[in-house]
Every structure is written in C-alpha cells, then in structure tokens.
Amino acid sequence: MRPQNLKTRIFLDGGNPDETRDIIRILGFLDGQTTNPTLISRHPEARKRLSRGGGFSEKEIYDFYQGVVKTLSGLIPQGSVSIEVYADASTSAETMLRQGREMFSWIPNAHIKFPTSKEGLKAAAQAVKDGLRVNMTLCFSQEQAAAIYAATKGAAKGQVFVSPFIGRLDDRGENGMDVIANTLCMYAGGDGHVEVLTASVRNMDHFLYALKLGTDIITVPFDVLKTWGERGMPMPAETYRYEAKSLKPISFREIGFEKRWEDYDIGHELTDKGMERFSADWNSLLQPEKRKIA
Ligand code: E4P
Q1: Per-residue model confidence as pLDDT tens digits over 12-23
Q2: Which of these is catalytic: 7, 59, 113, 118?
Q3: Residues 162 and 139 sit within 8 Å (Cβ to Cβ)
Q4: Does 113 participate in catalysis according to the annotation?
C-alpha cells in the first residue's frame, strides 16, 4: 500500500499495459501513466508486426495507440494517462491541437502531451482555454517552465503538468535534478496551476531525490519502480543527500511570470532533438510510403 508520508503522485513511464498490471500488483497502487511515441514503438505487438515486415497505416497506428491508452485508462481510472501528439519541426500548432482534441476524446482521464516548443506552447495555450488537460513535454530549462506557466495562466489545478527531462540533461553532463529543484522553487512563488512531473528518470537516486524535493508527480520506468516496490517502497531519509558527482550544476535564476509566454527564451537544443527522436520513432512504425506525416 502507498507509504503514509508519500505526497508525490507516482506514474509509470511506459507503453505496455502488462507492465502497468505488474506495477499495480507490486505496489498496490498507481496514480497514472505517461506514454510517448518511443514507448509505443517498443510495444511487443508493434515490434512483432514490424519484424514480420509490415508497418502500420496512419489510421492503424492511431487505432493501436488508442487501444493501448484505453487499456491503461481502464487499469488506472482514478489516475491520469498522458498521450503525446505527433510533432516534428514542421508541425503547426493547429495540427497539434487537432490531434490533441481527438486524443483527449479517447479516454476520460487524458493529459495531452505537447512539446515545449513555440508551436507546442501555442497549441497548449489554446487547448487549456478549450478545457483540455495538458502535459508539456521535452522541457529542459527553468525559463521554458516559466513560459509554460505564463502560457497557461487561468488553468485549473490539475489541468497542466510540466515534464522536465532530467536523464537527458545528465546524459550530456548537466545536473538535470537542478531543473526540478529550480522549477519547484520558482513555482512556489506562483498560484500552483502548473504541477511538476519529473520525467526521464534513469535510476533510484533520481527517484528518491525527486521525492525529497517534493515534486508533485514523478514518472518512473518499469525497472526502477519495480525495484522500489520490491524493496518495500523506501522513502528518502531526512539525511538523504543526492550525489550529483561530476554533473555540471544548473543555477537557479530569478524569473518572474509577468511576461507574455512568447517573450521568454523557450529554445533548447534538447527539445529540438527530442522532437526529432519522437517523430522518427513514430515514423518507424509506419509503412515506408506513409512516413513523414504532419
Ligand atoms: C515521459 O513523459 C517522458 O517521455 C520520458 O520520461 C522520457 O524518458 P527518456 O529520456 O528516458 O526517453
């Protein structure tokens, strides 16, 4: 059962409902799940179909994704399931919004993932006004998190998540956990309408430190969550210290929320690379002649 002093909501990061069932059995609870195009492309049925030489048509892949999230939604009806729109460098806000509206209708507990790019923020600002719940993905800086706050002002609590990606910052030698600490500290001066969802978690130390920092939500890969469950769901001790080792610190900056979202510096190389990777993984599922959809 859920540890008494656990305030953070625990999500599974994955695209395979069998893993969701296992985690619910091991932990006895689960607060939600995040999916993305890469995780869906790794689903065993998708792999099997591709290894037989057959790709999906565009309709088939959306139907497949819908089937997966419907199953997840049924397993965690009280939770949230994040569904990600297809977005490459040329995808317009209108196209993202159109997909987002359609995906939001798939299940009653969806959050729609838009990238933290100019077009993604434009789509999210409108989506929130239309009553959709959103999860801003591929966020790598405190300034991007400030822009998300500004773009979604007026949203209800629970309607907006920001997903800072810590593992991908660590991968290039920067301390990704600093973005979580800095964003939580910056948002403490706000109205609480954006919740911090720690993403791109790679190990138990990321997990424990995010709990210690008081992240609102954390999405965790199957292996890390399974290990935590099997160890009896330990919470970080008062004395817990995160060892950033040789990772370069990312300093806190004083950033206010008074500007228009368009006036923040929202560009980040890893956001662009992330969109490239997600769109490539999605396209890898499609029949060759159907690739590069927008
Ligand atoms: C979840 O919402 C993210 O898409 C996921 O955590 C990314 O993780 P990765 O950096 O390991 O691909």
Answers
A1: 999 999 999 999
A2: 113
A3: yes
A4: yes
